[in-house]
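Researcher: Let's do a round of design. I'm pasting the structure tokens now; please hold your answer until I've finished.
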């Protein structure tokens, strides 16, 4: 099984595995006698509801797959692998009926030949496993160029139809087009509200602490997983503590510290129903220590701790027994007689939140509580439910919700559970590079992106969940956010790029390599941002001219492509009318797609 990429975690960078390296791994598999290739994942997805595991695995399960979580083709990965499997299909008779013979072509260079003795069927794979050095090899009396870290496929043991390092497929740069307020609410909106999901909100505060008759008590701190049994992410731990009026901290105006050791994954602390702070773990270290001041008064005080899981462990030995929740010690620090250990006293427990129990995200559940409505919903408020209505975004493109102004919680559309969001947990600011070299052994953090940013701010909303009008969005915000900044976006192809050389191998009947561009259905190529036939370099959105450049490149490409959904251009000197001695020529093009 080949892992196309790895899953994402809240607070982690966004992993990426280049198409060249995925193709190299697959081609090497078949070269070395493999018979059945399994991809994990080939189609990305979404962990709707509470299905994401981990813990701390994101709601998105896109996996940098050839087909993304929205169902859109990810280019060039999808197309490059499609071309690879076409090439392998051409080798089918030799792979099935032939004998394998391995021939050394030098250090790190190898030919693997599959052939039959009688029928003359023959196919070959030529590989270069050097991570930096290109090579020219002799095979069956013919010279072949092998880029570093690549495999060439020869279905007839003569002609190269595919090389894993040479991509002719376009790169499609996807974008999110913000949906206008006028589209979501055609009546009674102004241009000043553009981009917002709504100006009219309703909200309801969640109860803090014990809220129902099904509460229970225990002596000491209970382990969360075995108590909740995955019925909810939430478990309330509540207790009371008496503070004598002659405590010095009351007279000095200072505060006590609450010390809580937790096995994860997140903790909210309330003192006398007032929010006192939060603490969270992450994927690499679930457990943490909360130690912050809390405001207590003379007499009886109520402490409520909301322990939350962010997905459960779903891999490893005895993963179903890995503990979560508050384990202690749990102490009050700063008292006259020293620390007060609260770990072993009587605690009262409540599984889940009241709004969760009442299903406030459903039509019937929402009617069971009183909502406050207005144009200025409370911001930066902990444990609060928000609700608003909207019309479905126009068109057929995939829809996503931008929750970047929120913090942590869960979201529903028309009663369907989008999943958990945790936009406040950001990736480390280091560990990313502008350059991703596919060559050499791949490792999980090799080509990370999104450093210093929220791991996931866009949340997939399937169009099958939406009605033309009067859709209901419900949010449970746990820490505090700004719902007025929420917006919708639709996913589309923004920019298309390709870079093809005149010696690029071709699969099928093509005699000359072609550069092909294609926008999404209904889009047209509106402009050409870059075009150069010669020896251009760089990558998509960063192409630059080389020392050899056909000045008519842009004019030729514009004539072939402008106003079209798809176009193709031959990569040949005859078309561009330029010859550069001692230069391997190629064509690089970047175009913009518009509706």
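Researcher: That's everything. Go ahead.
Model: Designed sequence:
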């Amino acid at each position: 099984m080949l892992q196309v990429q790895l899953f994402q975690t809240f607070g982690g960078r966004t992993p990426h595995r280049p198409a060249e390296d995925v193709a190299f791994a697959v081609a090497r598999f078949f070269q070395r006698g493999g018979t059945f290739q399994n991809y994990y994942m080939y189609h990305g997805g979404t962990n709707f509801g509470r299905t994401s595991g981990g813990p701390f695995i994101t709601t998105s399960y896109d996996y940098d797959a050839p087909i993304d979580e929205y169902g859109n083709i990810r280019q060039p990965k999808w197309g490059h692998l499609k071309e690879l499997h076409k090439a392998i299909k051409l080798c089918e008779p030799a792979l099935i009926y032939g004998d394998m013979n391995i021939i050394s072509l030098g250090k790190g260079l190898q030919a693997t030949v599959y052939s039959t003795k009688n029928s003359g069927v023959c196919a070959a794979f030529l590989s270069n496993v050097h991570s930096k050095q290109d090579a020219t090899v002799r095979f069956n009396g013919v010279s072949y160029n092998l880029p570093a870290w690549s495999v060439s496929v020869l279905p007839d043991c003569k002609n190269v139809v595919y090389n894993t390092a040479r991509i002719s497929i376009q790169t499609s740069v996807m974008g999110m087009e913000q949906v206008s307020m006028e589209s979501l609410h055609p009546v009674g909106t102004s241009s000043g509200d553009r981009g917002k999901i709504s100006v009219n909100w309703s909200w309801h505060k969640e109860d803090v602490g014990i809220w129902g008759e099904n509460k229970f008590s225990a002596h000491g701190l209970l382990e969360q997983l075995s108590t909740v049994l995955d019925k909810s992410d939430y478990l309330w731990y509540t207790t009371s503590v008496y503070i004598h009026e002659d405590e010095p901290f009351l007279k000095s105006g200072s505060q006590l510290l609450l010390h809580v050791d937790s096995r994860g994954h997140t903790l909210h602390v309330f003192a006398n129903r007032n929010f006192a702070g939060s603490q969270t773990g992450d994927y690499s270290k679930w457990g943490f220590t909360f130690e912050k001041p809390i405001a207590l008064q003379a007499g009886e005080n109520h402490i409520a701790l909301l322990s939350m899981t962010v997905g459960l462990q779903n891999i490893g030995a005895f993963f179903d027994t890995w503990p979560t929740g508050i384990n202690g010690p749990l102490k009050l620090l700063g008292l006259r007689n020293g620390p007060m250990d609260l770990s072993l006293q009587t605690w009262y427990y409540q599984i889940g939140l009241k709004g969760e129990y009442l299903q406030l995200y459903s039509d019937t559940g929402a009617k069971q509580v009183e909502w406050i409505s207005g144009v200025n919903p409370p911001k930066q408020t902990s444990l609060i439910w928000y609700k608003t209505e909207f019309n479905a975004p126009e068109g057929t493109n995939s829809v996503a919700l931008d929750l970047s102004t929120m913090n942590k919680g869960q979201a529903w559309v028309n009663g369907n559970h989008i999943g958990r969001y945790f936009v406040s947990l950001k990736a480390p600011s280091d560990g990313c590079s502008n350059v991703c070299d596919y060559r050499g052994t791949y490792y999980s953090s090799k080509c990370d992106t999104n450093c210093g940013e929220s791991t996931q701010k866009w949340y997939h909303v399937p169009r099958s969940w939406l009605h033309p009008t009067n859709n209901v969005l419900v949010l449970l915000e746990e820490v505090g956010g700004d719902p007025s900044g929420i917006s919708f976006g639709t996913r589309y192809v923004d920019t298309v790029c390709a870079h093809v050389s005149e010696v690029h191998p071709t699969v099928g009947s093509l005699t000359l390599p072609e550069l092909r561009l294609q926008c999404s259905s209904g889009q047209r190529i509106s402009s050409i941002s870059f075009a150069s036939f010669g020896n251009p370099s760089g990558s998509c959105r960063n192409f630059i001219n080389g020392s050899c450049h056909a000045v008519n490149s842009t004019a030729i490409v514009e004539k072939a492509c402008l106003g079209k959904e798809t176009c193709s251009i031959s990569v040949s000197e005859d078309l561009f009318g330029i010859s550069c001695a001692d230069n391997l020529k190629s064509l690089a093009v970047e175009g913009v797609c518009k509706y």
